[in-house]
Amino acid sequence: MSIFLLENISKIYKTGSGDFYALKDISLSFSSTGLVSIVGKSGSGKSTLLNILLGIEKPSSGSLKFNGRQINKMSDKSFSKYHLNDVSMVFQHYNIFDDLSAKDNVMLPLLMKGYSKAKAEKNVNNYFEDFSLTYLSNQRSKLLSGGEKQRIAILRAIAISPKVILCDEPTGALDSKNSLAIMEMLKELSKKILVIYVSHNKTLVNQFSDRIITLKDGKIFADKTINESRNNLLNNSKGTYSSKWSTLFTKINLKINIKKNIFSIIACTIGFASILLSFGFKEGSNISQENALKNNLSLLHATASEKTTFEIENSPLNYEKSIRPSLESIDENLENIDVAIEPCLSYLFPTYPFGRYQNVVVENFQMVPLYDISLETYGKQLLVSGSPPKEKIDEVIVNEEFVKLLKKDNLSIIDDLFNISFSTSLKYSTGDFDNPIVKDDFSFDYNLRIAAVVKEFSFLNTPKIYYSYKALKKELDTLYLENISLSLKRPTTIFEYLENVKEDDVISNYCSEIFLTSIDDSSIFFETIKKLKDNNSSFQIESNAYDIQQSYKTFIESFSTALFVFVIIAFIGVNFILGMISLSTFIENKKNSAILTCLGARHRSIQSIYLTENYLLITISVILSIFLSLLSQFILNNIISRNFALNNLISIPFSTFLNVPFGLVIFLFVIAIIFSTVFTLTPMLIYRHISLSDELRDE
Ligand code: ADP
Ligand code: MG
Known about the structure:
Shape: rod-shaped
Oligomer: single chain
Bound molecules: adenosine-5'-diphosphate, magnesium ion
Helix content: 40-55%
Radius of gyration: 46 Å
Structural class: alpha+beta
């Protein structure tokens, strides 16, 4: 029985000018030993015929049997078996792997065949000895000469004990001395197995061939038998496929691509770290928000007013205005919160006065009363220089924004004087027709001593001077209103007058001062303010700190949203990088994949070479990104807390995420693995359908 039986094989290529027959109606049969030469002009179809026998090209019509078995259509698995057990190939340009040692190249198909490393090595050593090539075995293939490479390629082809070796111009790239040596090697082999050999070299063909087949324009032109070959009984040396060999290539790829891999790791690490930091910001901003806002003395002070509707006499119209709320109303609305309620003094002591500092006019700062200027109940930890003032009208605390407004620094400003002066008048309606209005005029002129500087959460913060409400109250309680006292017929101090004025009088400033007596109430206080605003209640509280909190919240929320978009972009970017790495590694190594396929490697093992490399890159990047993000978190938080009095703004939720321990890292890792798998496999699936023969064509 013949080992190869070809019946009416044709191979048609579709070209621009119609069908082109590379092979036409070829019928041939081969015995199982001997050296058969295929000769013919260039383009006559020799390589096409060999490729069909190798299985990497499918005939357009006709039947091809190997050992009685039809092999026109082969699955990945049977293709692999065919090359690991039956047919191997020697190429014109050797196609051995330059980065493996000579011995590893020869061992490779044996490892694929499931041999243990030790057994494969023992077999391979014998082959090297048989052909007196032991001196080459440990050399790196890159360093071998052409003749030596081809000898290694032949050893690799025979290592699996094939039944047929197909050689496409194996001596085409060699000098005559090397060619002769190779032919002798093939001749030796052809005593036991079939060697089919394509050549241009007439001398060699005539010297060594047992049979010469001449092709012309895709047809058999001549078929001459020189020595009758005998048919051997075919021994079966079947192995079980193993994919262990692929780690050899993963290692090589990692080594060859070292620069590219380092850059990819850097890019991915930065990408992953940005993602972690963004999550950290989202988490940290929520936690730090509350703490940050506590770094603000004005938190302790607010004003309350009551919106009230007044009817106009003899008119269907009415009007609305804010008045000073009654104590009952305040009690009712702030029932669970410890507050001190005091008359509003801003009519006399303006919130936004002009000031003078070293004879220069200063504007755009705010005067805020504090109930406890000694900072005993709250605020000592905010001090950055000086010490809390005494309860005196002309001793004040300023914030850092104010220091900046004066272009000074925290230390040198202490004990400096800041002058505010203003005049005002209080009027009293007597109801007397002749003399309806009584008036008292005052002017105030204070040189405020700056006793301390506080560091506050700086977001949207304005320059502020904190003064003692109690000291001002005491002061105003010692100043008598001359004209108004006469009219009221009793001695009246300014404070008394303000305290007892009608709630909708202009000098009441339509509100009450509210002082939180405990910082611990600030959260409920803010909640209450929010509730009142949301319900559109007529009782209203104005708090500078609350407004800042709301703006900060909105700011953080929109920033988080923007950051989320950024995270998505970073995520796509990182995964795109991973995809590109897979793709480029694969494209660079397309030819190697084709060679491996011809040696009998299964598709999945080839994929695993690239996947393993990528998984390794991802793992390293994820681990590095944990360190990088922790370091960045530390540095950024330090800078932020120094400049904005905002602690731990970034706090990456490493320990738990969505209630999963280490969830964030796991999540990143899993998504990256999925993406990289998809990105790696897609190009490979596409390339799977690209012809192996095109990839292996020797230029
Ligand atoms: P040889 O090895 O004898 O030099 P080949 O078998 O490589 O010749 O090619 C036979 C003919 O088929 C040539 O004319 C070549 O141009 C053509 N051919 C080979 N491969 C293809 C292809 N993929 N598409 C179109 N034509 C091809
Ligand atoms: Mg050819």
